[in-house]
Design goal:
Layout (H helix, E strand, L loop, with lengths): L2 H47 L3 E2 L2 E2 L7 H13 L7 H8 L3 H10 L4 E4 L6 E4 L1
Antiparallel strand pairs: 1-2, 3-4
Helix pairs in contact: 2-3, 3-4
């Protein structure tokens, strides 16, 4: 290959690299503008719903500790001598139904039960 062709190839490669670099810069600027727009929209949503955005995200629910789950379920069952279903325990404690069901399933020795399936009621031992 002649020297002239090699020089042209190098010049074209440099131009390609420069174009890619400018495209990356342009895309980064667009991304930054989009993130700003999202932050503004989240702030508006927060004003309307009463939830405050935290670091660009809406505030997430806090995880309920095992002790809080146990304490809430025991307290509700202690106050109910006729026993409660899983759904009633969930509604009375304000805990998610699946959380209550899993807790009761994992701790059968702490409770006595009557009935089957939907008519199953839980009591404290």
């Amino acid at each position: 290959m002649p020297q002239d062709t090699l020089t042209q190839i190098k010049e074209l490669e440099a131009k390609i690299q420069e174009l890619r670099s400018s495209q990356v810069t342009e895309l980064k600027e667009k991304l930054q503008a989009a993130r700003q727009t999202v932050a503004e929209l989240e702030a508006e949503i927060g004003k309307l719903t009463g939830k405050t955005p935290v670091a660009g995200k809406l505030e997430r629910r806090k995880r309920t500790s095992s002790e809080d789950v146990r304490g809430g379920i025991l307290k509700v069952l202690a106050g109910s001598p006729q026993g409660l279903s899983q759904k009633e325990v969930s509604e009375a404690t304000g805990l998610n139904y699946n959380t209550v069901a899993l807790f009761l399933k994992k701790n059968p020795k702490d409770f006595k039960t009557t009935g089957k399936l939907r008519s199953k009621r839980y009591f404290l031992k």
